[in-house]
Structure formats: structure tokens, C-alpha cells
Amino acid sequence: MGNTSLRAPSGLVNVANSVDSSPMAIARNLEQRLEKLLVGLGGSVSRGEMHPAELAGWLARQADLAGYTHSSGPAVANRFDLTMNPAEIGDDPQKLANAVAEVLGTHAAESGWRLEGPIKVVINTDKSVRRGAPEANFEIEPGPLPDWGRLVGKDQHQLTARRSLVGRGSDCDVMLDADSVSRHHAVIFQKSGDAWVSDLDSTNGTWVNGSAVGGTAVQVTPGSVIMFARASYRYEILT
Fold first, then answer.
1. Does the residue 7 lie in any domain?
2. What is the 3-state secondary structure (H, E, C) of 211-239?
3. Are residues 104 and 135 both part of a single domain?
4. Where are the alpha helices (DSSP H) in the chain?
């Protein structure tokens, strides 16, 4: 149904169905949220041959297709351009776009997906688009995001990306100048408001409050001491 495409930065791989360990459940949850939204908005924003459930299912599939793998983990494009036949759009397409963007943003936060900027949904109309067959284009559009935490040690690092890559590499969100730290050492991420740390098979390991972080992410709370090899930092949350 319709066309889709993703323009990702060099070095990032588009991987549909890879944005969560249980993608079917995640996609179904998003679809249910979108359907509830569309039914609630009614004909003021959408009309035509697509039932709200069909449109919700289509939108959820676009979000799934927009997923890709970043060095820090699951990520998703943040700009969605939707093109529909004007006969299918109600009197307030901007209201629909804003509402869908809000649902996608909330879902991304709860799923722990990395975003490179705020979620933005743009709805365009084109009479050449067949009714019941909308088209979508999604891309990564860098933009400002609020800081959600910080690491405080010999220096201080703000945590902005929901999944922040920690290491010596120049592509890291948190770049540590320490020989003991691996190029891609660890990830500190936020999911459903909680913060977690996972080690990326680093040479010298990651510890939280003295306990080694193995293959499973470990939750951190305000005041937790995180050691990336020999580099020690205290995690603080920003409200």
C-alpha cells in the first residue's frame, strides 16, 4: 500500500523489524494507540475509503519500516512525509499530523528508540495518489533534543540522545579521553523514563556501583557510579 523510502546517514543500516526484541508486540501496541487516536479524531481529520483501523495499521508499518540500527542500538527516523488523496483528508490535516507525531514520540520514548531530532509528521495532498493507497517517505532530520541526564566525573557530559554511545570514538555522543576506554565502549539509554547502561563488549569492561555489567543492560538511578574501564562518573537525572 503506497510507497516508502528511508534516507539514512552513511554508515547506518536500515533494518525493518529490528527496533525492539519483540517487534510484533511493539508494532501492535503502536497500531492500537493510533487506531484509538484516529477514532477519537473522527471525520474532522480523515475521511474516505480507509477505515481508521486500516490507516492506523498502515501508519504503524511505516514506523516499523523507518527503524534502523545505530551503533548505540535501535533507532527510528524522525521525519515522516505522508501523501494522501485530498478526498481522504478532513478539514484539519495539521491537527492529524500533530496528533500522529505526538503518539509516535511517546511510543519512541517508551520503546527506547534513538532519535536524531523531534518527531515531525507532514501531510501532503496529491490528486494523483490513489484513494486508499497513501504514500510515505521517512528520513532522519537532525534537530534539537532536550537533555535528559548527565555524567559527572573529572569532566561533565550531558546526555541528549535517548541512546547515548559512550567511548573514545569521534562518533560517540559521550566522548571520553581515556586510553583504557574502548572506541565504542558502552551505551547509556533511557526507556520509559528509566536509565540503563549496557556494555558493548569493551576491552576493560563497565561497572555500575562496583558490579560488572555483563551482556544484559543494568538499570542506573540518580547517584549511581558508572565506571567505563577506569573512567568514573556519577549519573544524574535532569527533570
1. no
2. EECCCCCEEECCCCEEEECCEEEEEEECC
3. yes
4. 23-41, 52-65, 93-111
Cα-based distances in Å from 66 to 75, 124, 220: 9, 19, 29
Quick check: 192 and 217 in contact, CB under 8 A?
no
Q: Looking at the whole model, is its pTM more than 0.70?
A: yes
CA distances from 217 to 120, 131, 156, 189 (A): 30, 46, 23, 9
Q: Which residue, 168, 153, 159, 157, is CA-closest to 204?
A: 168
Residue 74 pLDDT: 94
Instruction: State the pLDDT at residue 154.
Output: 94
pLDDT mean by block of 10 residues, the chain; 239 residues:
40 32 69 84 62 83 92 95 86 86 92 95 93 92 97 97 97 97 97 95 97 93 97 93
Residue 16 falls within a domain, yes or no? no
Say whether both 116 and 33 belong to one domain.
Answer: yes
